[in-house]
Amino acid sequence: MIRKAISPENLGSVLREARKQKGLNQTATGKLVGIDQPTVSKVEQGSGGTQLGTLFRLLAALELEMVIQPRSKTDVKNDGDKW
Amino acid sequence: MIRKAISPENLGSVLREARKQKGLNQTATGKLVGIDQPTVSKVEQGSGGTQLGTLFRLLAALELEMVIQPRSKTDVKNDGDKW
DNA sequence: ACGATCTATAGCTTATGCGCTATAAATTTA
DNA sequence: TAAATTTATAGCGCATAAGCTATAGATCGT
Q1: Which InterPro entries does the record associate with it (chains A, B) (predicted)?
Q2: Residue of A nearest to B64 (CA)
Q3: What is the mean pLDDT of residues B5-16?
């Protein structure tokens, strides 16, 4: 499971996976936090133009949190799959 | 130096701290990745309107990466930081 | 194949980001 | 405290996000 994101595309993939993991569709997810379905779609496709406010609302809907840390040279996909 | 962010304000604080830790000012940081100083300022102040593309460029300038993970059950106000 | 559900795309409108430049506060340093 | 540096704010022009609605395309189940 990809957790690390260094680009909007990465992030979009992470969000999509998390959403499916929760059994939600784009419409339902967006409704939880006031984002319309087309916007959820664009974020998941990796739109770098997406705004931070939109991202954090999405994270809230999916019960996710963001961690900022120094870039690791060695890749980080440790941690037994928790989701 | 691992910091969680659940809002644009959180994130802005994290970025500002990381920048200072690297001994950079807003102008120098922005120049590394083609962002102007006023924009860096707004991001650090927590503008939810900041775009993801801008954020990722800033992360690159500061040699940071983003990790998305399930929200910790233990409250986010638990590691000594004030937000 | 069919219908139902889900996702992607499009047009319109309003709002706002960002680069650029200039300048005003605020902070640091001597 | 004055000067230098750094950060915040503002206006302009251009580009684009996001909400809304509609619909086309894709996917799933029967």
Answers
A1: Cro/C1-type_HTH, Lambda_DNA-bd_dom_sf
A2: A70
A3: 96
- B57 to chain A, closest Cα gap in Å: 9
What fold characterizes domain B8-61? 434 Repressor (Amino-terminal Domain) (1.10.260)
DSSP for A45-77? TT-TT-BHHHHHHHHHHTTEEEEEEEPPSS---
Type of residue at B27: T
From CA B68, how far away is CA B54, in angstroms rounded? 18
Distance A47 CA to C22 C1' (A): 32
Write the pLDDT tens digit of every residue in A12-27.
999 999 999 999 999 9
The residues pairing with A12 across neighbouring beta strands, listed in sequence order, are none
Q: Please tell me the pTM assigned to this model.
A: 0.89
